[in-house]
Fold this protein.
Amino acid sequence: MTVFDLNSDLGESFGRWELGDDEAMLGLVTSANVACGFHAGDPTIMRRTCVQAVGLGVRIGAHVGYRDLAGFGRRFIDVPPADLTADVLFQIGGLEAMCRVAGTAVRYVKPHGALYNATVHHREQAKAVVAAVAEYDAALPILGLPGSELLREAEEAGLRGVPEFFVDRGYTPEGALVSRREEGAVLHDPEKVTARLLRMLDEGVVRAVDGSDVRVAAESACVHGDSPGAVGMATAVRAGLAEAGVELKGFV
């Protein structure tokens, strides 16, 4: 693979609470998953992030989540499918307004946190997210975990599902993400995460927490913007990809 996308979850501050260095991260990634006000973000931050992304040529995706500001969207909520579809539509629409005045548009959709993890196996919630995207704009791709119900439902609905790799998260032997409550869930060494990303691109595998190799194929990789060393990690990953002859380019 000579072309690859690097994305990050951004715009996750709220009011006076600041999280991450969005401006620095936007100078390193090719796609920005912008929080839409449900798990993080507010209208002012959404607009500012969109303006900054446009100025740097970064594609914008709607980072949709549960209505859970207090829990940062990392708590599962058993939302009825129709309500979840409406919630996702609402979030896409809100970000679309900010994109429009910044001179761009929402280019893709990615669930956040607990919703992302739920749609790996929870078929009804996966279908609800896909239904929202299909009703809003069936041309929008959906980012998700390889082998997830979300990507299967997207394919069945005729949408483009984009498999994603997590640079800074641990993997289970089944190819899912290790729970943040468990050891090995979050990785911090820039050199090690860069090496495993390059191995994934070269060999199609990632080392799981039990030491086994798991098959993974992806079109985009995520570096979380809220991690303490996010900028340093994204810098190392970008440099490692360039050295390996991989061109960074948005998947859409």
Summary: DSSP finds eight helices and ten strands in the chain.
